[in-house]
Amino acid sequence: MSEVKRARGSFDYQLFLVTLLLMILGVIMIYSTSTYRAGADPYSFVKRQVLAEALGMGAFFTIYVIPYSWLRTMGRAPFRYFVLGASLVLLMLLLIPAFSHTAYGATRWLDLGFVYLQPAEVVKIAVIFFVAGYISEKPERVNTLKGYLTCLAVVVGCGGMVYFISTNLSSALIIMGIGVIMLFLSCNDWKIHLLVAGVGAGGVYLLINGIINSSMDVNAVDYHFKRIMVWHDPSAYVLDGGYQTLQALYAIGSGGITGKGIGKSVQKLSAIPEVHNDMIFSVVCEELGLVGAVVVVLLFVLLLARCMMITLKARDNFGKLLCAGVMMHIAIQVILNISVVTNTLPNTGVSLPFISYGGSSATFLLAELGLVMKVAKE
Fold first, then answer.
1. How far apart are CA 23 and CA 46, in angstroms?
2. Within its chain, how far is the Cα of 298 from the centroid?
3. Three-class secondary structure of residue 102 per DSSP
4. CA within 20 to 30 Å of 367's CA: 11, 84, 250, 341, which one?
5. What is the pLDDT of residues 193-232, one digit of tens each?
């Protein structure tokens, strides 16, 4: 009993230290990539990122100290429906011009006066709570096709709303990915997995193959379809979307083994659009080389490995699923970002956690890690 008491209440310093290292590296790279475009104040992007991370740390420690029973309550019916519904209401506020903020041609943020909030990040956490609560309340129901598809329909519906309201395909894919993997980890019926995977993979293959082999003009198709055509052959569409990808690949190739040094990137000066956001990993490769890129990937591997250990040791199914959802969120986002930068996947506009500039993403990712830390404490 004494060993149990000593174990409970302990702070997971390994998880916290890896997160802190990623945040520090992110601030350094954001400063390196944003100073020349920041205007009169070269620290403007860094200040906003640090403020967002400070808010995220506040959420991190707040979640750490609140009773675990409160989190369990949020996963139970009807509270999980309220949490999910509230997040979708925030999302629908984007349709009202008085509340929304448009940047880079997309309306994805709510203007709160002192800060911009991206509702898609709230929906991600709400979906994690919903699926964790839905499954842990009656684990046996996801082993039936009806129960599985009911939960999957909610997840796909939330992802669809994010896409159609905010035109944010990357967040929609991440939401769907989180839900599908949480269901995969909980369902013991492989026939259901094979059915869903077969339908999904077949649909994606037919869509991509149809777009690539079509004779449509790249400028006459939806811009998401256009990205698939650019991904297939970026050099053929240099003036129609392939420029960013090609410049990012040039940056990666020019970094060599050890890189050019912090602040010495050439491609960031004007060649790579949004270099401090989605394409920041290309500058990591250029300035820090292969060594720096490997270090960044290893830090994420350590973070995910620690989340996995906490998931496996969680004392209840709700805690396991909560940690698994957060772990999958980070893993999917890291894989998508690095794959996009290296042109392994079509450009989806997803940021690299803690490294890319993005206030809402940093704040809510830290809040999610606070959930993992809380489960570790228990």
1. 11
2. 18
3. strand
4. 341
5. 888 889 888 887 776 676 566 655 545 455 566 677 777 7
